[in-house]
Batch of 2 targets.
Target 1
Amino acid sequence: MSIILQVKDLVTKFYTLDGVVNAVNGVSFELNEGETLAIVGESGSGKSVTMMSLLGLIPMPPGKIESGSASFNSEEGLCDLLQLSPEEMRDIRGGQIGFVFQDPISTLNPILTIGEQISETLIRHKGLSKEQAREQTIKLLSQVGIPDPELRYKAYPFQFSGGMRQRVVIAIAIACTPKIIIADEPTTALDVTVQAQIIELFKELRDALGVAVIWITHDLGVVAGIAERVLVMYGGRPVEIAQVMDIYKDPKHPYTLGLLRALPSLEAKESKRLKSIKGTPPDLLIPFKHCPFASRCDYAFDRCWEEIPPLISVGEQHQAACFFDLEEGGPRHD
Amino acid sequence: MTDVKKLVEVINLKKYFPIAGGLFQRTKRAVKAVDGISFDIYEGETLGMVGESGCGKSTAGRAILQLHKPTSGQVLYKGRDLTQLSSAELRAQRPDMQMIFQDPYATLNPRHSVRKIVGEPLVINGKMKKGSLELKDRVAELLELVGMNPAYMKRFPHEFSGGQRQRIGIARVLSLNPKFIVCDEPISALDVSIQAQVVNLMQDLQEQFGMAYLFIAHDLSMVKHISHRIVVMYLGKIMEMTDRNTLFDDPLHPYTQSLNSAVPIPNPEIEITRTRFILEGDPPSPANPPSGCVFHTRCPLVTEECITVEPQFREITPGHFVACHLANTTGGSKIFIPDSKKEPS
């Protein structure tokens, strides 16, 4: 497997009237070809800002990408996504990197037919003629499971239900056979039965097209079914990266463990009391000098209040940013 | 459940919203948001209510509390029909029946301090005097009860996080010692780590004060966690009602079965191996519901009868109610026989 995207030390800040919001504080990860990586975190964990930084969608000002690199193995060779001009970015975004956002109604243009919106992508990125684009669009519509694609070509977004709209957005994302699809909470706004449909569609398309997927979500249930690797974020930093099985069976960071324990189980016969994580998420206006999770952590000790724990290897393809060894039940020895 | 007293009886409750149209805005059709639902809520019980968006679960909660005037049907609270009360009589009854809303920010007046927000119901209901020391002490007590520092009472809603705001909303609801609380998606707007805090708080309060909850939510796993019994709604009607374990171990309605099957389980081992049944299409519009059984357009087991005849909501086994023609004790309404629910480790 070759690496298709390598992000290193990404730092994104927002300069607001209230002060500097430290949204992303040093995110590094890599994405392999054809792999599905889930980025999990709660609101304010920096998961969406990370992706918007990569896609060049951070409004500047107030936002600013302070440092970092994101080397993307594009068709034209390696390039740093963070260094591209807006024009170069536009060629990649929607072409080699597709994206799907949470709310399909605000992603789609209400006054263009959905056929026009999909064709537009094909004409812009692939240089197809109008007629070729139309043919291709109808194929795409049936590929994402929209019945009567020829008829629906002329329909407007408001004539579609939420699930169908999200299918249209997915059709746009896969139109130019991208190498990566970035999906930011793509099923959060949908009902549970429709969510199951969209997840199935994503899996089918991923396997058929061999595309790598970055799936951003707060829902650990969805992650379990779709991801191969998981990156857990907290306070704008990655706190744990591992294979999906290891995250659920053998979490090494107290935050990951806490998140899993806070979930009710559908299997349990007796309803046990949930183990909540005490306190509230950190204030990003204050730059961290210590572990961002320390104030909510049951295992925090002196060192956690003195320095920021770096990501260290804790197992095969398993990294965690914590000074405490959950297995040993004591501080980790370097 | 026989020795437990009924607190609320909902009998054939309907709430239609008229759709006006044409030159003189005549009522043309109606959205049948809630279309004939019946169930009881017992003292000290949590009844969960689940369904997808547009199934009428929020409208049902509001119609029970008379926040929406029901189109027809009865709501008996301790045997007294709320739908027949005058507004003054209803107001006298209100302290007993409260509501917790989804978005705590929208329910708190941004220009009022926490002290005023939490104390206001007591002042309005004439229980305590505005500005009195007694009131201040009660507010402090309520804040402590929901796990907040009483010193926060001088602060304003914007100074708090979502979870804390929901706690403030709960403190206000508790101020009048209600017996029955309708909770409309109380945790949907909160982060996972905070959801558990609020759910634990609600369970603690129920243990301490013995109030009944109608817990409305779309998150099946959380509803199962908190509820004693669960009602499943679809297009304004109840599809199935039973206790929490039966609903997940032996669901009879095909809709309940597909809901169960669609819920993602946070365990990759189960997720990879489980047999799933995924419903096709979207729920139809409640303005134009299908004939016969409202679920027949998406049901994999649909028969002639389902298209024309509306199924009765009947008791199949004691305490297990289902609205499906095929439901029986021998698995007539099962989409598939689950492969012996296995749960490793």
Note: Chain A has a mean pLDDT of 89.
Target 2
Amino acid sequence: MPWVAADIQLLWWRGCPSWERALAMLGEEMTAHGLDKERLEVIEIEDEAAADRLGFPGSPTILVNGVDIQPPDPQQAVGLTCRVYRRRDGRVSPLPDPEDLRDAFARMER
Amino acid sequence: MNVNGLTIGDTAPALTLPGTDGADHEIGAADASEATVVYWTCNHCPYALAWEDRLHDVSRDYANRGVRVIAINSNDAESHPADSFEAMSGRVEREGGWPHPYLHDESQAGARAFGAKATPDVFVFDRDLHLRYRGAPDADYGDSGENAAWLRAALDAVLEGRDPDPAETEPVGCGVKWK
């Protein structure tokens, strides 16, 4: 199999239980879009120093081509915390809306 | 932070905490309630936010059955300013009021006495203030259709004189932010 660069990243912190669902959602959507799993890099953020270094706004964070699928407010502090996502139906959730992920994959394919 | 906390059958610890309504609220003292729900929550955690409406619905739905509901925020406001008493009060005002008191546990003595681990973490006491259920409101923070089913089942059981089944589930959410 040819080497494939990871251009999809899941950054997670074990203090937030939703990261496993985020990983499952990523797997499902990548399969649906025909994206090789080799393109996914899963990165555990273990301490505040790593969070600062990577500009981690909370868990889970999904980057596609280095871009957050639901960009946080510029004033959002970085650190070990659980992210608050807003679903497209207005609900607050510990997980991003799958539509945000699909849109990010669609942009990647263009 | 290591906390011992309550186990099923234990008596509710005595606490008096200030609420966003400007009053001090007593917990663990005999009153006329048929059951008491005490749950830990906060302003910044997505799990607590996702479950909050379901918990408010329980408060409204069981009010006329003699159930008292209390929400407590014990998070360290220095590391999490969104959980300061001022921020709690502002949130309740913005949301047009809550159906039950929202209390500030600034010293974190309440969270330690109960053994609260997460937001949310729900404790159900019977009329004698013995713990009968502890854990999550329901099985899925992401599914509002779950409608706090575990909490409702526990309350129905307590009000009917039965043992809740399950009596314990694992709280799911953000850890309490200790000082």
Note: Chain A has three helices and six strands.
